[in-house]
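Structure tokens please, single chain.
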Amino acid sequence: MTTEHARLAAALRELRAGAGLSLAALAERTAYSKSSWERYLNGKSLPPRQAVRELCRLANEPDGRMLALWEIAESHWSGRATAPGPAPAPPADEPPQPQQAPPPVGDRGRLASRLLSALAAAYILIVGGTAALLFLLLQDSQAQEDEPPPSSIPFSLAPQCHGAACEGRDPMRLICGIGPDTLASHRMTTGAHVELRHSKKCGASWARIWGTEIGDRVDVTADGPTHDVRISNKEDAATFVYTEMTEVSPGSIVRACFRPGTADGERECFEARVGETTRD
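Here you go.
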């Protein structure tokens, strides 16, 4: 499994967990079986693009970010992102020509000429057959390279940091976004949604925002630095956006503040304690 595929699988698992969808529910409400969803969510195989869209639809979440992650994962899975084009196969119908001998003289020369002609014909058959065989082997080799890698390749979905090592880093890239707790969730007066997220395995928290407008901003802080993120374009506004992580411990107070992009918008803040969950 590539890093890009692992990132997609982690995001899909977080989306499913947040929506409270079981594998059985996914199988009942989509065209994909329970076993298929198990493979998709655990990174054993790459899901079809439509499966990603279906999960976003069932979770009532924008599909822009997930589809972008899928495009990147699929390009690496298929080899299109890095694989060079296939080398041209040697032509099977134009074998190298043997070097011509000087014309012989007399009976001995005629005998030699016939022998050389026979050898040349045999040479042409051998070279032509070899070229054809190489052509077929190259085609078979290329076909094998185009096949997706086996699903049994081992890969760890364990978080890649903990505590202070997570400070100021991306929660999705470091696999901290698999099954996090939602400490608090609020809808802002503009309609934007902000959640305080927490990973016990990573010992870190961050804020997630969606339903935003260009220029909106959210920041998160606990016992250390403040980390913020701004909605820069329409692609950001159409999907989830995350702040960087901040280190926390049980009992820490995590605070998120939302600032709308409009000039007359008011700042809105809320907080939660690690180990407790609240929703509005």
